[in-house]
Amino acid sequence: MTDMLLFTPFKLLFLLGLALFYGLAFEEYYTRDARGTPGGVRTFPMLALSGAALYALDPATALPFAVGLVALGAWLYAYYRALWHAVGESGRAHGLMVPVANVMAYLLGALALAAPPWVAVTYAVAAVLLFGARDRLHQLAAKLPAAEVLTVGKFLLLAGVILPLLPKHPVTDLTPITPYEVWLALVAVSSLAYLSYLAQRYLPMRGGLAVAGALGGLYSSTATTVALARRGRISPENAHAARLGIVLATAVTYPRLDIIIALFNPLLAWRLLPWLLALGGAAAVYGGWLYLRMRRDLGMQDGSGASNPLELGTAMLFATLFVTVSLLVHWVGSVYGGQGVLGMAVAVGVTDINPFILSLAQGGVHLPQSMLMTAVLLAIASNNIMNGIYGIALGGRQILGATVGLFLLAGLGFGTALSLQGWS
Predict the structure, then answer these.
(1) Mind giving me the DSSP string for 217-248?
(2) DSSP output for 38-69
(3) pLDDT 10s digit of each residue in the chain, 424 long?
């Protein structure tokens, strides 16, 4: 009898409401265009209540509930077998969706009793959203290249298979960073890179290269600067947008790095936040000035030229570079102290600064917080200088406005870093 206490007035009303919502959505998308389809606004609440009652009879083993599920499956099988014989192929219009929806209505009853309310709500809402997205999902499946599906599979391999298997303790005395932390950094950077790629490729946007540049900054301001500088030089009509895109990529870099740092060192990210927001704001203001000068030249661009950054080869390269930089940071810190790490921060600006900054955030070297902040700001400022040099070399006068902005931002970054070091 105590098991029946699973039923409360709130849970009963909650279950009825969810089941009615689920049934209404089902009728909207399935029963109106197929007569005789089982399920709907009356059937689903009955199935949900039946599932809940049978589960409440014996929640320890759920044997009555399992028997009811088997009986429902047998009835659906008999019903559809008779329907197919009676109407032929026309009775198969919805495939397995209708019987699956009926089974899900039955399962909803037990879920509403055994799980927190948000689980049952998520379950029902997700099913309803899938009902409504039927046509769009079929269109997406027809248009989506097979390579994109494989890319998602690669990401799941990186994040869901390899990451949990890696050891969470150091495997060498050369660095305190663990293999798990190395791969977690790779997953974090790859996630931002892939989201940026998807937005550029599949979302037509007003602003063309400028917006593509801002999205590219979610991955690498250096790679974005190189690509847009070349684009601006080859196509002078795109030079205005290329200049703005380069500046916006740099503006996005500051908050992006703070977010990534926060995943591993929240205190360092919090202390860096006002400085990075100020520098990012300065870049955004400069970008706004450029925009006012060239807004009429902005056009539509679908981003179809964006390259996919989530490749296993790229991931392996990042992991190798991250481990190498981590070893160097640890060695430089142990031999030359904090000043050596600051010198290295300036030197790494010639390449990808993500591994260096992530190494600092994950404790690759033990330094005071103020010195870690200074090293991060120096690395970003040095990278801005190198991006400016790349821009001049590849884009020439066509993107001069962007390179001037990068040098100004680098000066602000160096000044901020030196002031922090002086205060400490």
Answers:
(1) TTT-HHHHHHHHHHHHHH-GGGHHHHHHHHHH
(2) S-STTHHHHHHHHHHHHHHH-TTT-HHHHHHH
(3) 444 456 677 888 888 888 888 888 888 776 655 555 677 788 888 998 999 889 888 888 889 899 999 999 888 888 877 777 665 554 444 567 788 888 988 999 888 888 888 888 888 888 888 877 766 766 666 666 666 677 777 777 777 777 787 877 776 676 666 777 777 767 776 776 676 666 666 665 555 566 667 777 777 777 777 777 777 776 666 677 778 888 888 898 899 889 888 988 899 999 999 999 999 999 989 888 877 776 655 444 444 445 555 555 656 666 676 677 777 777 777 777 777 878 887 887 776 787 788 888 877 677 788 888 888 899 899 888 888 887 888 777 777 888 888 899 989 988 988 887 665 5
- Cα distances from 69 to residues 47, 72, 169, 318, 421, in angstroms, run 10, 5, 45, 49, 68
| Spatial contact of 268 and 361, defined as CB atoms under 8 Å apart | yes
What would the two tokens of residue 419 be? Answer: 């002031």
Please choose, from the candidates 97, 79, 109, the residue with its C-alpha nearest in 3D space to the C-alpha of residue 25.
97
Nearest Cα to Cα of residue 352 among 393, 309, 300: 309
Q: Residues with Cβ < 8 Å from 266, sequence gap 6 or more?
A: none
Neighbours of 314 (CB within 10 A): 14
6 C-beta neighbours (distance < 10 Å), count: 17
Q: Please name the residues in contact with 415: beta carbons below 8 A apart, sequence gap of 6 or more.
A: none
* Neighbouring-strand partners of residue 301: 205
pTM over 0.70: no
The count of residues in the chain is 424
Coil vs helix vs strand at 341: helix
CB 384 within 8 A of CB 407: yes
8 A C-beta contact, residue 286 and residue 405: yes
CA angle 102, 104, 110 (to 5 degrees): 120
